[in-house]
Structures are given as C-alpha cells and as structure tokens.
TrEMBL record:
UniProt name for this protein: dITP/XTP pyrophosphatase
Cofactor(s) annotated in UniProt: Mg(2+)
Subunit structure of this chain's protein: Homodimer.
The species this protein was found in: Aquibacillus koreensis
GO biological process assignments: nucleotide metabolic process; purine nucleoside triphosphate catabolic process
HAMAP family referenced in this protein's UniProt entry, alphabetically: Non_canon_purine_NTPase
Cofactor note: Binds 1 Mg(2+) ion per subunit.
Binding annotation for substrate: T8, K9, N10, K11, G12, K13, S72, F154, G155, Y156, D157, K177, H182, R183
Length: 197
C-alpha cells in the first residue's frame, strides 16, 4: 500500500497521521485532499466506535478501497466523562477549539489538582470492502491544567498535561506527542495490517 484515505476533515489529526505513517512510507490523504467535494458525514453514534465506523464505512463504500477513520475526544473524570464523543462540538456546532477548551476550564473552576484527571481517547475504524470493520482503541492519561499553555497540536492540547510530564501536550514537539498520544497508541495496534497491505 502506497496511499491510504483517512475519512477526516480535521487538519490537526492529519498532521499527526502524516508523521505517524511516514515511517511506513505511506502517504495519507484526508477528505480535503480528494478531487471530489465530500459532504460532511453526520456523526450520529453515541460511542467513538460507532462514529468512527460511520465515517470509515461511508467512504470505503464510495471508493471501494480500505479507509481508516478516527473518532476521538477528551474524557474528564470530574465532568462525568464530558466532553467525550462531543469533544469537537462541545461549545457548539461551529466546532471551535478555543471555545471548547475554555468551556472545559470554566466547568473545572475550583476543582483541585488531584481531581483533574482526564484522558484522550482515539478509536480507529478500518473499513475494507467485503470485510468486517476492525476497531482499535488508544488512550493517553493525564490531567487538566488551569489555563491554556503552548502553541503546538490542536483541540484540547493546550490544557492537557500527560502523565509523567510537567508541560501540556501543546508544548510537546509533534515527535514527542506522537510517541505517547492516544492516536499513536491506537495506530500501533494496526501495524501488522499496515505492513501486510
Ligand atoms: O487536544 C487534542 N488533541 C488531540 O490529539 C485530539 N484528538 C481529538 N481531539 C478532540 O476531539 C475532537 C475529535 O472529534 P471527531 O473525532 O469527531 O473529529 P472532528 O469532527 O474534529 O474531525 P473528523 O475526523 O470527524 O472529520 C477534536 O476536534 C478535538 O476537539 C483532540 N484534542
Ligand atoms: Mg467529527
């Protein structure tokens, strides 16, 4: 395999995937890289698995090719697992990273450090013509800071401090993020398939 379509329009995810796939010599294409204009796919599921499958299967069917999709998000324990599957649209359907992370910070006002535990979750769904969809889940544990710090990454990276670090995910280089991230931890489980295909 020389090229793989990833059923996403998220440029932050694609930056991660570009780097993660480069070691396999595979070029990844997002829905924004295709010639055809692909309408937004409605994420109607209640779980990361359901939403990842919806995205991967719609595009795999359309092109008759293997397609990977990523559904991911932040689970904050003090917020009962929110924003979870609603991470991209937590502060509204305009899907603004800055508004989303400020909503989390606001809701966490007054919550003590030891109660600020959280994790990033990434579920990858690999849909292939005539085959059952394969799921892989990766997580990255950490806690929520009190203000946004750092310029790298995307989404909630500026407020997420991974375990064993004293800086946010947005202060890590992309190489550092890609050694510990939820996305990396999910993708590594597909390594055998990637090498065989
Ligand atoms: O700080 C972060 N670092 C990450 O590494 C990360 N991964 C996911 N997220 C958050 O979770 C939403 C995914 O929602 P999501 O899977 O529906 O994706 P999306 O709607 O943005 O794009 P698409 O892939 O569906 O086209 C994203 O928008 C982000 O808010 C992250 N935040
Ligand atoms: Mg989405």
């Amino acid at each position: 395999m020389q090229k793989l379509i990833i059923a996403t329009k998220n440029k932050g995810k694609m930056k991660d995937f570009n780097q993660l796939f480069s070691k396999y010599g595979i070029e990844v294409l997002s829905l924004l890289d295709l010639e055809e204009d692909i309408p937004d796919i409605e994420e109607t599921g209640d779980t990361f698995e359901e939403n990842a499958a919806i995205k991967a299967e719609v595009i795999a069917k359309k092109f008759h090719l293997p397609v990977l999709a990523d559904d991911s998000g932040l689970e904050v324990d003090a917020l009962g697992g929110e924003p979870g599957v609603y991470s991209a649209r937590y502060a509204g359907t305009h899907k603004d990273d800055n508004d989303n992370l400020h909503k989390v910070l606001e809701k966490m006002t007054g919550v003590k450090e030891e109660k600020r535990t959280a994790r990033f979750v990434c579920v990858l769904a690999l849909a292939q013509p005539e085959k059952a969809t394969i799921y892989k889940r990766g997580e990255c544990e950490g806690h929520i800071g009190v203000e946004p710090v750092g310029e790298n990454g995307f989404g909630y990276d500026p407020i997420f401090i991974p375990n064993n670090y004293n800086k946010t995910m947005a202060e890590l280089t992309s190489e550092e993020k890609n050694q510990i991230s939820h996305r990396r931890n999910a993708l590594i489980q597909l390594e055998e398939w990637i090498k065989e295909n």
